Amino acid sequence: MKRRNFLKSTAAGAASLWLGTSAKASSFFKPSAAGKMVVISSSNGLRATGRAMELMQQGHDALDSVIAGVNIVESDPNDMTVGYGGLPNEDGVVQLDSCCMHGPTHNAGAVGALEGIKNPSLVARLVMERTDHVLLVGQGALRFARAHGFKEENLLTDKARRAWLHWKEKRKDNDWFPPEDADRDKNGKAALDIPFTYGTITCLGLDGNGDISGVTTTSGLSYKIPGRVGDSPIIGAGLYVDNEVGACGSTGRGEENLKNLTCHLIVEFMRQGMSPQKACMAGLKRVVEKAKYMPRLMKDNGRPAFNIRYYAINKAGEFGGVSIYGPAEYALHDGKENKMRKAEYLYEWKK
Ligand code: ASP
């Protein structure tokens, strides 16, 4: 597909005006049979890995491809952890975080607490390509998106609003309460009883040129304090790419990644010679060790009271995925097959 047509077909429509370095890379690139391609994503990312690989196989670079992949999930109202349809903050407002990192230029862009824009990953990319900065937040990020022609939309779907309202009404520390005939599902549980929840999509790609890029995008922790920014837009925390080594992305409790810069750590472990799988597990264990300093992060059985997951690829096309709690899965396209793979985990859920 010609680049011009590809841009038209992406979710951003008129806002897809990137002309940066990766555009140059992809315009001249012809896929080579020698170059092993791989795309990895979180468990909600099978459509993203499929789309990203399709684009890489057509000759697009990894950044174009992984962003187009996650745009599918950002725009999907049924994924309540990312973009449009994501669960809102405690005021009922959807605030989105995203970052991307481009291996060949070692450049990055990010947005935090962005409201009203369905595809924050596209805005993050423009921060990288059209400013001298890496991170824009809140109103400044929104004004920047507007300047680039992004359309503002109400991102709070009715389903997400009802989940938020139910969460608010069942809390004991305020004056809101649910109706007596609150909708119940067939198990007798309130139909939209979605508790505090994490969820994000991260997607990393190694293209046929041997270049690596990644993106992470999220609505973050549901019902969060307005203005709370997690790890997803922080380079080194929720995403890190080193074109000479590999890339790592994360989903789960962002606060632990902010304190450990775990994605950067995992890429450094790979630089020291660990496989992506071993590096992810070493990073995960570091997070668990450090969490023990703070008793409220641990359960009585000595296990973490939170979950976190890492996904990584290296320059050779090897990959890995881990989770504190399992069974857990991740999406992977190895150039031949696009399917869910089992992630290694430390503990079983509910034990
Ligand atoms: N890491 C995200 C955050 O803390 C949420 C998640 O991945 O579940 O905002």
Structural description of this entry:
30% of the residues lie in helices and 22% in strands. It is built from 10 helices and 12 strands. It has a 12-stranded mixed sheet. It binds aspartic acid (ASP).
Spell out the blueprint of helices and strands.
Elements: H1 3-9, H2 21-28, E1 38-41, H3 46-57, H4 62-74, E2 96-102, E3 107-114, H5 120-130, E4 135-137, H6 138-147, H7 158-170, E5 201-206, E6 212-218, E7 239-242, E8 246-252, H8 254-260, H9 262-271, H10 276-291, E9 308-314, E10 319-326, E11 328-333, E12 338-348
Parallel strand pairs: 3-4, 10-12
Antiparallel strand pairs: 1-5, 1-11, 2-3, 2-6, 5-6, 7-8, 8-9, 9-10, 11-12
Helix pairs in contact: 3-4, 9-10
The protein binds aspartic acid (ASP).
Short note summarizing the structure:
30% of the residues lie in helices and 22% in strands. The chain has 351 residues and is an alpha+beta fold. The chain starts with a helix and ends with a strand.
